[in-house]
Design brief:
Layout: H1 3-18, H2 22-25, E1 38-43, H3 47-57, E2 68-75, E3 85-90, H4 97-110, E4 118-123, H5 127-130, H6 140-153, H7 157-165, H8 174-179, E5 183-189, H9 212-221, H10 228-236, E6 252-258, H11 260-273, E7 277-285, H12 289-307, E8 314-320, H13 334-346, E9 352-358, E10 370-373, H14 377-383, H15 388-393, H16 397-403, E11 407-408, E12 419-425
Parallel strand pairs: 1-2, 1-4, 2-3, 4-5, 5-6, 7-8
Antiparallel strand pairs: 8-12, 9-10, 9-12, 10-11
């Protein structure tokens, strides 16, 4: 009984990922070549696949080395071969020296462009950590310390990126400001709730409405004591990020080429074709991962009871980016914590199966994209001597699903439209 739902769950996830493949979704949005030169810069988990798509579809008479050049930075293990656009790999989610060096080169390359030139910027999720160029007076170690604290705090991505922008020399619009007066076209793959370009990768080419005061408040709200240099920098509030209406950003255009909603819609078609009535719970869900999982477990139980008499089969689909507040010493990302909370809430109920995976193929810092929950998950855990509640309390959901051989391991997908979640509900 579990084989068919598991296969369909994996198919839904693969469909969501395929809808955001840069090889498919990027080419229709390429701008016209300029009369001058084209410089391609970018950052994110999909940066290499986006750069490869640009090279393959750029007009052939503009393929001379002097006509298109560039540099992108992506996460370790996410590189692809390119001819004209250099690909550098760096650390994510905690930045490293390679990312800082790449960001410095990217910013330097943007200076000196003229009005006849085009800066084509390729941005995807993960770009904020990969573009780790500290503001003057700050060190990479300062940024690493703040980033690690934010990751452990449970702060949502939009608030994390407000802080990151105000510690950066390249985010929050600074990259586009450096390129003025050139035409700047940014192609974005969204991994954030709401698809706000100012939040995706901390908006290196987008005006930033946030302020130093907001960054200070976020650290205070999450009881984060930053390094002294960071505290002084935020208090001084010098060199505020470019704001809406800044003339240096007047020649900019941003295009969303892939979003969580589009990936969910593609998966919904597959679920409907398999005989499920699809209910969209939202593509922008946030909150503590295990708590959202528990709520969705209750929703699934209620949906099954409501549809039992009619024999209705229901698929609950959702996306977004939850958070994990780390209290224990275990392993596991937000998708595994969500699934552990879901499994506990379902209490082994027959007819309900689920998947939750990060569409980039890596859930947090582990080797898995996510995992699946089946009706017998808790029974198999008990037989294996695993205590799901205790493991979750120690932030060790990885130990649970690894022990059950229920991890989804696909490797880097080279795209990223945030988390994908599906719950299949069949009549008992």
């Amino acid at each position: 009984m579990t084989a068919q739902p598991r296969a369909l769950l994996n198919q839904l996830f693969q469909t969501a990922v395929a809808a955001a493949d840069p090889a498919i979704c990027l080419p229709p949005h390429l701008p016209a070549p300029p009369t001058g030169r084209t410089l391609v810069l970018g950052a994110g988990k999909a940066a290499a696949s986006m750069a490869q798509a640009v090279e393959r579809h750029w007009p052939k008479d503009h393929h001379e080395p002097e006509a298109i050049t560039g540099l992108v930075v992506t996460r370790y293990g996410h590189a692809l071969p390119t001819r004209y656009i250099e690909v550098i790999q760096a650390a994510h989610p905690v930045p490293d020296a390679a990312g800082a060096a790449a960001a410095a080169r990217i910013l330097a390359a943007a200076f000196g462009l003229g009005p006849d030139d085009l800066l084509l910027v390729l941005i995807s999720g993960g770009g904020s950590s990969l573009l780790s160029l500290p503001s003057p007076g700050l060190s990479l170690a300062d940024k690493q310390a703040v980033n690690q604290a934010l990751l452990r705090s449970g702060a949502p991505i939009d608030q994390m990126n407000v802080v990151r922008k105000h510690l950066s020399a390249i985010k929050g619009g600074w990259l586009a400001a450096a390129a003025a007066p050139a035409r700047v076209v940014s192609l974005l793959i969204s991994d954030v709730p709401g698809d706000d370009p100012a939040i995706i990768a901390s908006g290196p080419t987008v005006a930033d409405p946030s302020t130093f005061a907001q960054a200070r408040k976020i650290l205070a709200d999450y009881r984060i004591t930053p390094p002294s240099a960071v505290a002084r920098h935020l208090a001084a509030a010098e060199m505020e990020t470019p704001k809406p209406g800044d003339p240096r950003l007047a020649n900019n255009r941003t295009v969303l080429i892939a979003t969580p909603a589009r990936s969910l819609a593609a998966a919904a078609e597959v679920a409907a074709a398999a005989g499920y009535q699809v209910e969209m719970l939202g593509d922008d869900l946030e909150g503590e991962a295990r708590e959202l999982g528990a709520r969705h477990g209750e929703m699934a139980r209620a949906s099954q009871i409501a549809g039992q008499a009619a024999g209705r089969r229901t698929a609950l689909l959702s996306g977004g980016e939850t958070t994990v507040t780390v209290h224990g010493t275990g392993r596991g990302g937000r998708n595994l914590e969500y699934l552990a909370g879901l499994a506990l809430a379902l209490e082994g109920r027959a007819g309900i199966s689920a998947i939750a995976c990060d569409t980039d193929g890596i859930d947090g810092t582990e080797d898995n994209a996510g995992a699946v929950v089946l009706p017998n998950t808790l029974a198999r855990a008990a037989a294996a001597g695993l205590n799901p509640g205790a493991l979750l309390a120690n932030n060790d959901a990885y130990g649970l699903f690894h022990g059950l051989d229920d991890l989804v391991i696909c490797g880097p997908t080279l795209t990223n439209v945030n988390d994908f979640r599906a719950i299949l509900i069949d009549p008992v």
